[in-house]
């Protein structure tokens, strides 16, 4: 799986960091998912090999402009590139209002249907073509959500030991069970495929979180997650200075949570523009990294725009 | 006067060209005006010395997304940079609907008041702090306008010959007339200041046009204009191929008009992304330039993103 960052700044863009946007796809596969779409997301896409025609769904974490103002332009450009396949947009209901009002006021007609899914009313997981997508409610100034992607369609192997123990003879029946078909044996027994299939490996699970001041809300989802992508807008010192109003997380708060939840890979993003990339006497992204490292001994990565992180089948995450 | 291009592509951005946006200011002066605000305009501003706090007014030519989808993000960033001064937005009434609907859906609260001016109902010129701003209706798929900027506040000199001919003695009265005050003479005559003041020079006039398939609609305004900024989306050959549907101008059509109207300086912009900056066997911006040059012998310039053009007091326009 690839996680590609299209923007890593919070609130306003900087010369090097755009507003929030993350792309997720199975490595080597064209279909992809977009989580958040700040202004300028379509501009960043021009520097990747992601195509608007292969975009499966857009998941918006919350209604703040730095997470969704790129959506009308992206939808318009998909029309200009000739897209015809339906596009799913999952997000707060107000995202639908925003898009529909924009279409009406600016006479934007799309060449494809849009299926809006209200994340607050999403019942169970959404079947996202290679992924199950689930949402977790967070804590922010407005309703905000994390999207949890779990890969689906993994091949499974037959549990031969159990087949033999239950006296199910090898033959065409084994093939049927392997393909996921249930079978009635000549002796009348009904055999369920899922009882005789073993996971080849644990499906990979990636959490991409929206703005959130309470990382512990992700505790349940984090249990089996391989990667957590979470905002770390400030260091603790700045978070204390700005007060609780903005309702963001500090690097310390996220790193402590990731350590307690034993998450193997943590990617921080959504940095306040007051943190510069490097140098000078002012605040830097390095300050955020240092604070997080003191609390978390796992694989910590700080995202830059256009970074691509690859999660292999063994659950190892590396920057490509 | 400086004319700074923030975007020069039509429809969709390219790696080198953003969507429509032009900044206008008096040289050496902080206040500035923005004409159109495609997505990513605020990103381009980061590479200029234009400040959102000094922005006097935004003029939107028409409602198409590539001319206005950057507006919500720009307004939000002005709030984050602490702006308190009122901002004027001149444009079609639907721009107000777009902004207000976006504010409501995305909970965008601004730190300053916005004064919307419906360009279709704008009575006479708008007093724009150093400029008179007028609008001219164009021809496009939706109502589209050109904005005409004429500098104001030029110093004027006394018409001494006329003062003497009318037997108005030099003294304090001459000073009052110079300052623009009307005067009653001891002999009872009422003297109007404007009758005794001469223009030091012709005020500079710049036309910045929206999308338009009929350049001749600008004939009246063009009479005394120093600069025309106009779209040249295609060459004639491509314009014929795409047909009349998009309702844009070819380079030839604009250049022929500028030649007939005897406009001294013509800047072309809003190029279809099919025209590359250079090289290869495909279409290039050079094709648009070549076509325009064959019809127009004046000062022809093709805009690139972040180009700054300086119009001096004598009406000479150069690329800085």
From TrEMBL, chains A, B:
Cofactor binding, per record: Binds 2 Zn(2+) ions.
Active-site annotation: 66 (proton acceptor)
Reaction equation(s) it catalyzes: Endonucleolytic cleavage of RNA, removing extra 3' nucleotides from tRNA precursor, generating 3' termini of tRNAs. A 3'-hydroxy group is left at the tRNA terminus and a 5'-phosphoryl group is left at the trailer molecule
Cofactor(s) needed for function: Zn(2+)
Pfam families: Anti-Pycsar_Apyc1
Biological function: Zinc phosphodiesterase, which displays some tRNA 3'-processing endonuclease activity. Probably involved in tRNA maturation, by removing a 3'-trailer from precursor tRNA.
Protein name per the record: Ribonuclease Z
Organism annotation: Zobellella aerophila
Gene, per the UniProt record: rnz
């Amino acid at each position: 799986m690839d996680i590609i960052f299209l923007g890593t700044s919070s609130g306003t863009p900087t010369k090097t960091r755009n507003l929030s946007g993350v792309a997720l796809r199975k490595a080597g596969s064209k279909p992809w998912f977009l989580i958040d779409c700040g202004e300028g997301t379509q501009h960043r896409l021009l520097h990747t090999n992601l195509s608007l025609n292969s975009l499966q769904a857009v998941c918006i974490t919350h209604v703040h402009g730095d997470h969704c103002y790129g959506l009308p332009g992206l939808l318009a450009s998909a029309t200009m590139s000739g897209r015809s396949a339906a596009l799913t947009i999952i997000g707060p209901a107000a995202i639908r209002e925003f898009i529909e009002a924009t279409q009406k006021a600016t006479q934007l007609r799309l060449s494809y249907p849009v299926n809006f899914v209200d994340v607050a009313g999403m019942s169970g997981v959404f079947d996202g073509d290679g992924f199950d997508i689930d949402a977790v409610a967070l804590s922010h100034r407005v309703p905000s959500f994390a999207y949890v992607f779990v890969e689906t369609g993994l091949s499974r192997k037959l549990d031969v030991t159990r087949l033999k123990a239950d006296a199910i003879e090898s033959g065409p029946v084994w093939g049927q069970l392997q393909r996921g078909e249930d079978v009635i044996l000549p002796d009348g027994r009904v055999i369920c495929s899922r009882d005789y299939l073993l996971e080849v490996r644990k499906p990979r699970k990636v959490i991409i979180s929206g703005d959130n001041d309470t990382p512990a809300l992700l505790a349940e989802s984090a249990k089996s997650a391989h990667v957590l992508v979470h905002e770390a807008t400030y260091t603790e010192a700045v978070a204390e200075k700005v007060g609780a109003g903005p309702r963001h997380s500090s690097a310390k708060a996220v790193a402590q949570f990731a350590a307690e939840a034993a998450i193997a890979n943590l990617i921080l993003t959504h940095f306040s523009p007051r943190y510069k990339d490097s140098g000078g006497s002012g605040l830097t992204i390095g300050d955020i990294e240092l604070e997080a490292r003191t609390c978390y001994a796992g694989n910590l990565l700080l995202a830059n725009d256009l970074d691509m992180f690859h999660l292999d089948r063994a659950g190892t995450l590396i920057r490509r």
